[in-house]
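Please predict the structure of the following assembly.
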Amino acid sequence: MITLYDLVFQDDRRPSPFCWRAKFALKHKGLAWRDEPVGFTEKEKIAFAQSQTLPVIHDGAHVVKDSWAIVRHLDKAHHEQPLFKSEMALSYAHFVAGWVDTTVHPALFPLLIGDLYDRVRPADKSYFQESRAKRLGTTDFAAFQAKAREKGPAAFRAVLEPARRVLKEQPFLCGEHPAYPDYALVGAFLWARVASPFALLESDDPVHAWRERMLDLFDGMGRKAKAA
Amino acid sequence: MITLYDLVFQDDRRPSPFCWRAKFALKHKGLAWRDEPVGFTEKEKIAFAQSQTLPVIHDGAHVVKDSWAIVRHLDKAHHEQPLFKSEMALSYAHFVAGWVDTTVHPALFPLLIGDLYDRVRPADKSYFQESRAKRLGTTDFAAFQAKAREKGPAAFRAVLEPARRVLKEQPFLCGEHPAYPDYALVGAFLWARVASPFALLESDDPVHAWRERMLDLFDGMGRKAKAA
């Protein structure tokens, strides 16, 4: 049995976009897992993996950290229902994961930071505040978020344009069926959904319709997750 | 025989990144073509295609405008050496083309605009000045470029991060062999190379090594093109 160590916020909320990638990948492959929630100040739970970040998985003799390494491992260790059937599939997945990390997340983070802070477990608040203040240059996350929201979600929506162009033509980023590029991007939207009630997309946006399809996948895994 | 209508600058320079996509796609498929240069003020040459932009191709009974439509057409009309062997390949190509259009080109354009203007055909200068001034809000392209270059190419290099992550692991965006995502991105670099001597990449950047490989492709088609 695989154990997945998943970042936990208060009321058992699970916002981590990187952990969502691992959960969608596990579902894609039809693999069951044991869930192990880990708060920001419970890093001793993943000390065995020499990791400071989540997700981590423990899969038989294998301990794997980092979402990209985890999904590569899953395909190597479990041949059924491959995530990466071809070099092209692997390349596309790697490209989109990098695009989400370096373009989508930075455009989203300022819109969510105050709501994320509100939903961190009480025991983890000071850790979260200190670590994120280093990144943002302020501890007033509510004000930082308010300022980002004043400008509205236009810049975030603009960043999604490469995905939108594809989703105008087909139901998923990968064609008729979802695959890892879809999972990498929906992780960002689940991060937002679990942490914040802020509306990111217009209802006539092809990305909106895609997100609905992604929330329905795997018996509604994303839709059933405790949202803000 | 296919005719490709290609945007021409002075001294027979060919900077259009969209026309480069078509040329790489034609080479990929082993298709020969007749070259028809078109200046900005010679749009009557492509009036038959109801197009205001290049590239345009005339392929037997088919007239096709827009680089994405052209490469889709090429694969449908000529089955040898497909550009898109799978739904995944087509999806990746569409995504990367959209990413180059909406992220890479806008980061590059301010760094090149003065040099582009210098190399437009004399007959096309006023057309270029007027149309680009609308976009930039100024006719002083040299000053606009100088200001962009003062900040340096750091922002442009940052935008390339999704490509860089893939190219750290493999020689081309598509794996061991190049395909349309590589052609879409190299079009941006040929736009720069043909129009401007400005150095965009550091020599130890994996994107730099990839660009060298791309310039060598197809008997050095890109490298042989008249550069600035």
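The interface with chain B takes residues 85-92, 94-99, 102-103, 158, 161-166, 169-170, 173-176, 179, 181 of chain A (CB under 8 Å). The mean pLDDT of chain A is 97.
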